[in-house]
Structure formats: structure tokens, C-alpha cells
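User: Okay, second chain of the day. Same drill as before: sequence in, C-alpha cells out.
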Amino acid sequence: MNWNRLVGPLILITMAAMVIQAVQATEEPVELKNEAVKIQDIVKNESAFDNKYVVIEGKIDSECASGCWFIVDDETAQLYVNINPSNFVIPQKRGSNVKVYGKITTSSGDPAMIGKIVEINGEVYR
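Assistant: Same drill. C-alpha cells below.
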């Protein structure tokens, strides 16, 4: 059997399954019901938020073409959100309202978030 001919279709099927799994019911997950933290507060006091799970809200300012990271702007500051470690992606939604639940980390001296749950205009991805 030629395994090389099977690898491509298997990757496509796996990616399609991930995208289908990512879109959940429209009911807001309990994690997203927490009060949102201002990004400016995270930036000004990184050590207080490091390794903590929080909710942020804002607009998607820019994003990766493959949907694995994006930048949220809440009008107080911007924060990089990486969802690649959580094994899901989002569709291109630049300019959309977004709510994200995730873990704050520090990367190269700057705060960032590893997103676990993302809600964009009522659609939930995880």
C-alpha cells in the first residue's frame, strides 16, 4: 500500500473535523460569562495576571491568514491571542467583536494570551 497517497487526504479530513468541532452551540460557555478584564490592566500589571485565566473583549484588529492567532483591541490596549496551542482555528473575522477566555502568559517580555474559547458575533470556537 502506498502510504504517501493517503497522507494528503487524511490531513484534509482531520482539518475538516477540527473546523466542524470548533463551532459549538450558540449558548455562551460559562467561562465567557466572567467579567472581562481591560487589556490595559493586563499590560500595566503583567505579573499579577501571569498564568491566570481571564476573559477579554474587543475587536479583532489583525489575524493570521490560517486563523491560528489574532490581536484583540479593546480601546485601552491590544493583546496577542494564540489559539494554535489549543488545537483550533477561527475563520477570517477582522473587525468583528470578539470575547476570549484564556491564559495570560509572558512572551519575550510582553503579555499574551493562549486562547481556550473564542466567541465571535455569537459563534463559539474551541
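Residues 20-25 have pLDDT under 50 and may be disordered.

User: Thanks, on to the next one.
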